[in-house]
Design goal:
This protein is of the alpha+beta class. Helix 4 packs across helix 6. It has 2 domains: 47 residues; 164 residues, Chalcone isomerase (3-Layer(bba) Sandwich), CATH 3.50.70. The strands form 3 sheets. Strands 3-4-5-6-9-10-11 form a 7-stranded antiparallel β-sheet. The protein is built from 7 helices and 11 strands.
Length: 217
């Protein structure tokens, strides 16, 4: 697609690009100024076209993990006592609204967490993970306790406003945890992946509202 077509006709008219005579010195100066303005407009259009706004945040409509391109399935806020803690976004290879299929799938997927509250201590983070695993696994939690402990060990620092956590699952590697683009650790096994994603998408999710948003509902 021609990049000029990305600019609305009204904007093109206002730019008056067709009226410029590039053979003269004054014309070349005008052309440079107009071209710079066009590039600025294109930059604005491109930055908004590839992001989804959630309140004041811009969430990428797609991400690349290794050799996989994942698309945004849905996003919303995780709330605690009506307070927004973080924006959570689910990324899949293709759109899916069935939570069971997502949980069971041995496919690349990711959840992006963008923290919007002032600060969440590492202790509160670990407590929240433990509570989520207990709801998701019930009596079966003992079978995965060692893996849960390993996962919890990655969260040694408080999460502050603006921090971005990426929970990534790759079949060939396992669950990878990134904090502000830095890999903190990996937990192998589809069994752990299912339990982890059930925290958001299971029958007893941490936040039912966020679950619906992640499923695109």
């Amino acid at each position: 697609m021609n990049s000029m077509n990305a600019i609305p006709a009204k904007v093109m008219t206002e730019l008056g690009l067709a009226e410029i005579q590039p053979n003269s010195k004054q014309g070349r100066i005008q052309m440079f100024r107009k071209t710079s303005l066009i590039l600025f407009v294109l930059l604005v259009f491109c930055s908004t076209a590839f992001a989804v706004k959630i309140s004041e945040l811009k969430i990428p409509s797609s991400i690349t993990i290794g050799n996989y391109k994942l698309i945004l399935n849905g996003a919303g806020f995780r709330k605690k006592l009506f307070i927004k803690v973080y924006a959570g976004a689910l990324y899949l290879k293709q759109k899916e609204s069935d939570p069971k299929k997502i949980i069971e799938a041995d496919e690349p997927m990711a959840i992006k967490m963008v923290f919007v509250c002032h600060e969440v201590s590492s202790k509160k983070l670990v407590n929240a993970w433990n509570e989520g695993f207990e709801k998701a696994l019930g009596k079966n939690i003992k079978k995965l306790q060692d893996k849960i402990n390993t996962f919890n060990s990655f969260f040694t620092q408080s999460a502050k406003k603006g921090d971005i956590y990426d929970i990534v699952y790759l079949p060939e590697k396992g669950v990878e945890v990134y904090m502000n683009s830095q890999l903190k650790g990996t937990v192998k096994g589809i069994d752990f992946k299912k339990a982890l994603f059930a925290i958001w998408l299971g029958e007893k999710p941490a936040d039912s509202g966020l679950k619906k948003k992640m499923l695109g509902k």
